[in-house]
Amino acid sequence: MWNRIAAWLLSALNALLLWMNIPVIPAGQRVDLDKFELVWSDEFDGNTLDRSKWSLRAFGQYPAPRVDGYWCYETANVYGGMLHIASVYAQDGIAGGPAGYYSSGLHTQGAFYQAFGYFEVRAMLPKGDGLWSAFWLQSENIAHVDGSGRDGTEVDIYESFYYTQRWPKKNSISSALYYDYDSSGGAFQAQGHTVCWGQVKKPYDTFHTYGVEWNADEYIFYIDGVEYGRSTLGGVCQTELFLLLSVEHTFNAWWGGDIRSNRPGDMTDFVVDYVRVYQYKN
Question: What CATH class has 2-280?
Fold first, then answer.
């Protein structure tokens, strides 16, 4: 009972801080991995991207235009037990593409889906203006507009686009839920918007875990295994979702920063140690 009361109080506090646009610090319950079993993972222990697990989100075009840049396989490399997604400016383009900024958006669509469980990445986030990395879950049914997220919800386990902002947002991330995509953007709810760790644990210089526990009744978001937010938006998705790892680029100085402001050598890689997916034990 006390755990539920503490979770409710944390949720209420986070909602208040979210409304005030103030970062929250994870202070809830720890994720209980004993109730899960590992069913899928990529530890990135080889020397090439495992393309039986990951594909590039290309939208029928390669390189794939995405926000203010392009996605291609060439910027995703595996070495040293890590996945490195680089952000580069290519004057002559990459893989026949035009001049511009290149990175990668990788997904498991067609290869791996799961409904419910615990989904986690361990990563160090990319540093630089206009770099927007994320670990997220997506639905093939996201554009079906029916007033509910039960048939498909985008779960943004974490997104990073605050590097250029001042304290208290600078060392922070956000999480969000979306469903019913349409021309107006669909339904949206931020979760622990601008969650921060202070000046000791900087997410752009050190590794952290970002996870979500998703069951039939709610989503619970974690950083380093500690809860910081929960939601039932849309009635909670009841269908299988696929995974994505991505870095996007923006020219929006007010929002995520302007990637064109970086000097040579300013931008760092999105470095992923592992992605792990657990399901509930029977």
Answer: mainly beta
